[in-house]
């Protein structure tokens, strides 16, 4: 453990909780509006839930706004563009489908910045997840930014980027990733 990690992790958690509380009320309002839109354009269910692997390999149920039809296709969400509805595509481009995860940040299952949580089957494919599970999974990270930029990300590249984050994690790194994520969302360039 690097010397700064002794204060960084508690500081990161305190900032996560503080920011989540600040944005909670507007997030709930936006979610209410989007939920009504989802019911009108796609019907039920409004939310998509899936078991994911969190810090130290502990499973949790991740919640997102549903953006796809129920038809099955490829096993990776970012290869399933054919299942996105126009409404779902707009929500995903703005990264609004991730808004329910603010509640995961409050409960401590997730952080704002960290490796995206994987399904257990994908963890097995990347040799147990390695160092990426030493930290809380996040809403955004290097891999999400790369996916938004290129539209595709190989699993091995994702793990490499996730482990890069673990190596470089700091408040400055977190702020930089959040800034780049906001820039991507505002430019309508989010991952589909």
Features:
192 residues, mainly alpha, two-stranded antiparallel sheet, two-stranded parallel ribbon, 4 strands
Describe the structure.
The chain has 192 residues and is mainly alpha-helical. The protein has one domain. It has a two-stranded antiparallel sheet with strand order 1-2. A two-stranded parallel ribbon has the order 3-4. The longest helix has 37 residues. It is globular, with a radius of gyration of 16 Å. It starts with a helix and ends in a 6-residue tail after the last helix. 32% of the residues are buried.
Task: Briefly characterize the structure.
With 192 residues, the chain is mainly alpha-helical. It contains seven helices and four strands. β1 and β2 form a beta hairpin.
- Calculate Rg over CA atoms: 16 Å
Query: Number of helical segments?
Result: 7
What is the strand content?
Answer: 5-15%
Indicate the mean pLDDT: 82
Give the end-to-end Cα distance, rounded to a whole number of Å.
36 Å
Give the helix/strand class: mainly alpha
Sheet bearing the most strands, described? 2 strands, antiparallel
Q: Tell me the total number of β-strands.
A: 4
What order do the helices and strands follow?
Answer: HEEHHEHEHHH
Strand order of the largest sheet: 1-2
Q: List segments where confidence is low: pLDDT < 50 over at least 5 consecutive residues.
A: 73-78
Q: How helical, in percent, are the residues?
A: 40-55%
């Amino acid at each position: 453990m690097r010397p700064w990690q002794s204060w960084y992790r508690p500081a990161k958690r305190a900032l996560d909780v503080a920011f989540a509380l600040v944005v909670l009320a507007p997030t709930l309002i936006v979610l209410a509006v989007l939920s009504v839109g989802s019911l009108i354009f796609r019907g039920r269910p409004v939310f998509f839930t899936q078991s994911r692997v969190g810090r130290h390999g502990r499973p949790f149920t991740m919640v997102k706004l549903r953006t796809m039809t129920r038809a099955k296709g490829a096993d990776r969400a970012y290869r399933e563009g054919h299942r996105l509805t126009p409404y779902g595509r707009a929500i995903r481009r703005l990264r609004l489908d991730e808004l329910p995860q603010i509640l995961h940040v409050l409960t401590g299952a997730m952080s704002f910045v960290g490796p995206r949580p994987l399904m257990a089957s994908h963890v097995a494919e990347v040799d147990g997840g390695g160092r990426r599970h030493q930290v809380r999974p996040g809403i955004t990270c290097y891999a999400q930014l790369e996916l938004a930029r290129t539209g595709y990300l190989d699993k091995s590249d994702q793990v490499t980027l996730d482990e890069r984050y673990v190596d470089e994690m700091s408040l400055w790194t977190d702020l930089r990733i959040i800034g780049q994520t906001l820039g991507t969302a505002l430019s309508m360039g989010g991952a589909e």
